[in-house]
Amino acid sequence: MQILHIWLFLMSTSLIFCKKFKEENKPEWAKKDIRDYSDADLERLLDQWEEDEEPLEDDELPEHLKPQPQIDLSKLNMEDPESVLSATKKGRTLMTFVSVSGSPSREETEQLTKLWQTSLWNNHIQAERYLVDDNRAIFLFKDGSQSWVAKEYLIEQEMCDSVTIEGKVYPGKFSSTKDEL
């Protein structure tokens, strides 16, 4: 019971010391009824709310605000475009499209791509998997540089028709359409 009294006392004293503007000191947008706020008013309110907060750490920022990792171009083999692409995608999200050969049902594609995803996870390559068609899936890599390592594994699989990364199609080792690509 004493804890409840202490908590109530603290809450009531904190309300006393809250910063509150008098009606005449408020900006025009703040005098409106909250139901009449425009998107710009809500944005100003959010900015006002966040102005005293500490900035987020780099690893807590959304991906589009994170600083780009520094690439040492002297260590890259410019003769190998895949290694250059892999280095530029380090730390960035990248989608890879994987096509399953034959005419599998959606359930068969689900089971097969789940097996491939598990194998990648067992090799410390983290990928989320989303089916987009009966014979096609997206593997989403939080670290895009892992996409090329995963591609090497995937194209070796018997039921893999092709892997597409950054618009480039890599045929599977056992693909019947290999010569057409």
What is the approximate shape?
elongated
CATH fold assignment of the domain at 89-171: Alpha-Beta Plaits
**DSSP summary: helix tally:** 6
Q: What is the CA-atom radius of gyration, in angstroms? A: 27 Å
In whole angstroms, the N-to-C terminal distance is 76 Å
Low-confidence stretches: none
Give me the oligomer status.
single chain
> Under the CATH scheme, which class of the domain at 89-171?
Alpha Beta
CATH architecture field of the domain at 89-171: 2-Layer Sandwich
The CATH superfamily of the domain at 89-171 appears as: ACT domain
Helix proportion of residues, in percent?
Answer: 25-40%
Structural class label = alpha+beta
Pfam family, one: Mesd
Family: Belongs to the MESD family.
Signal peptide: 1-18
Main location: endoplasmic reticulum
Description:
The structure is a single chain. Helix content is 36%, strand content 17%. With 181 residues, it is an alpha+beta fold. The protein has a domain at 89-171: 2-Layer Sandwich (Alpha-Beta Plaits). Strands 2-3-1-4-5 form a 5-stranded antiparallel β-sheet, with helices on one face. The chain is elongated and about 75 Å long.
Keywords:
signal, 6 helices, MESD, chaperone, 181 residues, Alpha-Beta Plaits, alpha+beta
